[in-house]
Structures are given as structure tokens and as C-alpha cells.
Amino acid sequence: MICADTPSADPVQLAGSIARDRARVVAVGAVGLRLPRKPYYEKELFFVNSRSYGPGRYDSSYEEKGQDYPIGYVRWTEGRNLEAFVDLLATGRVDVKPLITHRFPIEQAPQAYQLITGKVKEPFLGVLLTYASTSTAPLTQTSYSQSLVGQQRVIPSQGKVKLGVLGAGNFALAVLLPALAKIPGVELVGIASASGVSASHAARRFGFRYATSQEEQIYSDPEINTVAILTRHHLHAQQVVTALQAGKHVFCEKPLAIDSEQLSMIREQLARSSAVAPLLMVGFNRRFAPLAQRLRAFFAERSEPMVIHYRVNAGYLPLTHWLHDPHQGGGRIVGEGCHFIDFLTFITGVLPQEICVEALADQGRYCEDNVVMTLTYPDGSIGSIIYVANGDKAMAKERIEVFAQGRMGVLDDFRSLELSYQGRRKVWRSRLRQDKGHAAEWRAFVGAVAQGGEVPIPYQHLLGVTQATLAAREALRSGERVTITYD
Length: 487
Fold this sequence. Notes:
The chain has helices spanning 10-18, 37-42, 60-63, 78-90, 109-116, 141-147, 170-180, 197-206, 215-220, 236-245, 260-272, 290-298, 332-335, 337-348, 438-451, 459-478; strands at residues 24-27, 46-49, 100-105, 126-130, 154-155, 161-166, 186-192, 210-212, 226-229, 249-252, 280-282, 307-313, 354-359, 371-376, 382-388, 398-404, 407-412, 416-421, 424-429, 453-454, 482-483. The protein is an alpha/beta fold. The strands form 5 sheets. A 9-stranded mixed β-sheet has the order 19-18-17-16-12-15-14-13-21, with helices on one face. The longest helix is centred in the C-terminal third of the chain and has 20 residues, at 459-478.
């Protein structure tokens, strides 16, 4: 085994000269690979360039989708290598403490990096960053509103929404565009899709003036004052920023971003904008549903914390579905879970301060989509979200139960609402069909653009819910409770 780190091929040549006939030479370190023909040919040596961490490394199906290699075919996978090493640490057979030469509190991280990059001429081996124990003191609502891009934006009146749409997939054709057809004050100007074919179909069906395969045409069209982003998740953040920079109002279907870098990019763009600027809104439609509005009003006067239980029977998605792809969909917690974290934020009126997530093992069939999230809030409220892919479609998808101060509310799949207080029970039902608020959110959005005024969803919630959703994914993968620090 060659564990050296050098561009020289000397270790490879030495290994060839001392190895026995038909031996195996394994390069673990990064070394020069100019193999001398004579010893390797005469001894018929096997040379293996070891992949870091073992089989499974660089395989997205293994690392990101959880498709394990059968142990009968691959004994030491990336994960099993790590498990074995952690076991060695746990039993004390490997002791790394003597390797640690320096410890720095996280506040002194710049000094640590000066050391390891050689800017400080001091010998070192292992450098550790340490964190103080997390405070459990409750955060005040004031700290939330001050820490986010929290100025309530004032939207200048536009008179009419002149809409350009990016994306013409199933959600656009089946949900959003049919809902828009019922909203007065919206002029459908242009629609873009990657190939242009689906855009042409949507243009003919819903009455857009034109279809295009170039999204730049939507940004640059002076007739368009509003852009709806209905594309795949990984495109949302950049399209939001580009549209805002072009001076367009933006409706972005959830999620707003699939990682912290994308979220920071949007936050920076909003920070550069003036208080009177184009509107940004995210498709958190459930908070606009008529029964959801009634549920929130029922608990509006509470003075005690709440307990909220939100069950989502999401249904199974094949592992090959793009939503599971970390680079396109971001996973179901980020891609869909944001809806339910936002709904809890809407009901409580505050953003969560801590979150922990537990999950069933994926077992090669699921992908981080059988989870239980527990959220705690600054006012002492507790929310739980059960999101499962292993249920049965015959049961309703969503059910919310809310408890506070002698009151109870049950919202069943956005079809019926039951409210109970002091032994009196009232039931409301959606008159014709399930109503998750898609039309109502667009009425609010169109009204804000056309008439001006405040944004329909505070930016604290748009950004904060996205950050909390990313924290949920972090909590799931780390197995630890995460305290959410809002930027």
C-alpha cells in the first residue's frame, strides 16, 4: 500500500521492485503513476488506484439516492468503511486525540485558516474548530424581524398584470394556468419553455400572445411587468434574481431556493432593492385557502402556546423522479416540505427557532421522504409534521389538527373544517371541491401588483420559511436538533 503524497513516481517504482510475484500494489495516496514496465511485467503485478472512501464514491445513486451495494458483491463500500472507522474510534482502538495540535473557537476561525494556509509560520497537524454549547433561551419575535430582510415592501401600482410565464409543465397546465383563467386583471403576454413545444401548446390553450424557447425574451419584453416562474426547482433562484433585476414583479412557485447559496443570492438582491421595488411572492398557496383563513382567525386571540399536528400522506415517488435529484429537485423535504412549514408559520404567526427530524430507513426504495419533523417556536408553541411516502392513496392527503387555550380545529384535506370551543362544534365544507388556495393567492398577488400596497406574504416568511426548510434537511442528515439562525 502506497500512502505517500508526492508527484514523483518513485514510490510506484519501489513498490514494483519489492513486491512478490503477482502481488497487488494499491496507491492510496496521490502519487506519480509512471509505472516501470520491467518489474510490473515480469512479476505480473496488479496495480490499483484507490478511489477515496471506497466503492460508492462519486456514484449519485449510492451517495444521494441511498441505493446500497449488496454486501455479497461489495464488502467495503464508502459507508461501511466509515462505519468501521467510527467503530474503531468508539472502542478506543484508534485514538486521534494526540493528532490534534490546535483548537480554535469558531469566532477565531480566520486565525485557524491563517495557520493551515501557512500565513502563520507555526507547526501544526490537526486543527479543530470548537463551538460553544447552544443557548436554550427563547428568541423574541423582535430578533426575527430585525435579522431578516424585513422591511415590509410597498408595491407601486401597475394597473394591470401583464404576465410572462417561465415553464409549461404539468403543474402549470393542470393547476396554475387554469386558476389564472378565472382571475380578472391578468393579461397573458408570453410563455417560455425549454423546447418551445409545450409553450406553444399552452399559448394556444390559454390565449398567450406568443410562445418562445428563449426565457430572455420574457425578461426583456417591455410589455411584461410580471413573471411567473413555474420551472424545475434548481432554476428558481437565478430566474427570480434575473427577473427582479429586469424590474419585473415575480411569482415563484415553491421552493424559492434549494440550497443556502441560492437563498443568499435572492436575499442580496432584495437588500439591493429600494423599499419601493418589484414584488416577490412564493406559491405558498395553502395559507390563502378559505378554510385555512377561517382556522387562523379562530386562534387569533390566543394568549397561550399552540400544538399543531400536520399529517401529509404524500404518496410514493420512484427514485428516478426528478424531485429526488438533489441538483434539480432538491429532495421532497425542500421541494414539498416548505409548504407545510409555511402553513405552521402562517397559523402561529412566527418562524420556528429549532427543528429536529427523524426518518425511516430508505431501504433502497425511498429517498428521505418518510419523516417526522418537530418544530419549536419562540412563543412556546410546538408543531409536528408527519410526511410519508409509504401510505395508501385511498386516504386523504393532508390533515391538520390545532390545539390551544381550550380550542381545537381540524382541517381535513382542505375540504372540511371543524372548530370546537366550550363544547360547541361548527363544521364548514368547501362548497364544490377541494380548495387549497391557488385562486385566492393569485387574487392577492394580482391585487398587490395592480393596486399597490403591502406584499401578500411578508418577506420575513418567504425567506425564513425557506431557511427553516433547509435546516430541516440539515437536521435529518445530521441526526441533531438544529437551531435556526435567520440571516
